[in-house]
Design brief:
The chain is mainly α. It has a domain at about 35-60 and about 70-125: Cytochrome Bc1 Complex, Chain D, domain 2. The chain is about 50% helix and about 0% strand. The protein is built from 5 helices and no strands. Helix 2 (about 40-55) crosses helix 5. The two termini are about 20 Å apart. The structure holds heme C. Heme C binds next to helix 2, helix 3 and helix 4.
């Protein structure tokens, strides 16, 4: 029961962090200081304007680019998306296509995009892992 309460608090905290606009986040290099706040609405628009060209309008039907096909990202875990975008931006994960996409984003924008993308309906599913009881 205790852990359920802790989980609820965690989820609530994560939700609040999603909707909050984090003015303390410094804009990424090349981003105007007057960048709009990183809300879910901003994320939906940015996804439509930029990311959908490769990942598909719904994030689930990517454009089949030869050689380096963009993955399905709709419904991916939010923390995974934050990690991936941060690593593309900061160079721990190297990809010539995604690096410039991520370099345009500050931390708040990455969090907002991750929240938006993870909320999209997805064909992704967790493989059965009987050794973990599911
Ligand atoms: C020009 C095409 C293109 C655009 C535009 C683009 N992506 Fe990507 N994206 C890719 C490709 C290709 C990969 C696979 C890169 C790799 O092999 O690491 C990728 C990978 C990713 C991944 C890693 C997924 C995983 O399963 O590890 C995320 C997250 C992602 N993109 C998010 C975004 C977001 C958010 C935007 C918009 C800001 C965006 N992408 C714009 C082509 C694109």
């Amino acid at each position: 029961m205790k852990s359920l309460t802790a989980l609820a608090i965690l989820l609530l905290g994560a939700g609040l962090a999603t909707t909050a606009t984090l003015a303390d986040d410094a804009p990424a290099t090349g981003t105007a200081a007057s960048a709009p706040p990183a809300t879910l609405a901003w994320a939906a628009q940015h996804f439509k304007d930029t990311c959908s060209a490769c990942h598909g309008a719904d994030g689930a039907q990517p454009t089949p680019l030869p050689g380096n096909p963009p993955p399905i990202i709709a419904g991916q875990y939010r923390d995974y998306l934050v990690q991936a975008l941060t690593e593309y931006r900061d160079g721990q994960r190297q990809n010539i296509i995604m690096a410039p996409q991520a370099k345009a984003l500050n931390n708040a924008q990455i969090r907002a995009l991750a929240a938006y993308i993870s909320s999209l309906p997805t064909p992704l599913h967790t493989l059965p892992r009987p050794e973990f009881g599911h």
